[in-house]
Structures are given as structure tokens and as C-alpha cells.
Amino acid sequence: MVSDLLHHLDTHKSMGPDGIHPRVLRELAEQSWLTMEVPVDWRLANVTPIYKKGQKEDLGN
After folding, report:
1. Got the DSSP string for 22-59?
2. Could you tell me the residue range of the domain that residue 22 belongs to?
3. According to the lineage, what is the superkingdom (predicted)?
4. 20-53, pLDDT tens digit by residue?
5. Which residues 6+ apart lie within 8 Å of 10 measured at CB?
6. What gap in Å lies between CA 26 and CA 30, rounded to an integer?
7. 30 lies in a domain?
8. Quick check: is 50 in a domain?
9. Cα(20)–Cα(52) distance, integer angstroms
10. d(CA 3, CA 34)
11. d(CA 38, CA 28)
12. Is residue 60 domain-resident?
């Protein structure tokens, strides 16, 4: 699924909100696939929980 999205990515468009040009993103993904290595930064994420409804104290919400 990810490879399909990257394959159909329009590399003639401008950068998105992440500041990465689509052409660079495609090249990085292809190199990652060919070398079978994932950059350390790609393994990190900032997760922000968003409260939707129910008891705020219930961590399952």
C-alpha cells in the first residue's frame, strides 16, 4: 500500500506541511527499500492523544 502511494505520488507538486518535497520523499523511500534499512528518525514519532468524548479521567477514551 505504501509503495503504491509513493509510486503514484505527483513529484511535480510543491512541499507539503511536513516540508519534504514529494520527489525527495520518493527517493528516500526507494533507497530505504533497496538497502533494506530504515533511518532512525523514521522510527520515531510524536504522539498526541486527543480527547473525544466520555470521562476524561478514563485513559481508554
Report:
1. HHHHHHHHHHHHHHT---GGGG---------SS-TT-T
2. 2-43
3. Eukaryota
4. 899 999 999 999 999 999 989 889 988 888 888 8
5. 22
6. 6
7. yes
8. no
9. 30
10. 12
11. 10
12. no
Q: Collapsing DSSP states into helix, strand and coil, what is residue 37?
A: coil
The domain tally of the chain equals 1
Contact 28, 21 (CB under 8 A): no
At residue 31, the pLDDT reads: 93
The answer to whether residue 51 sits within a structural domain is: no
Which amino acid type is present at position 49? P
Reply yes or no on whether the pLDDT at 13 is more than 80. Answer: yes
Quick one: pLDDT at residue 56?
A: 79
> CA of 43: how far to CAs of 34, 37, 38, in Å?
18, 11, 7
Element (H, E) at 39: none
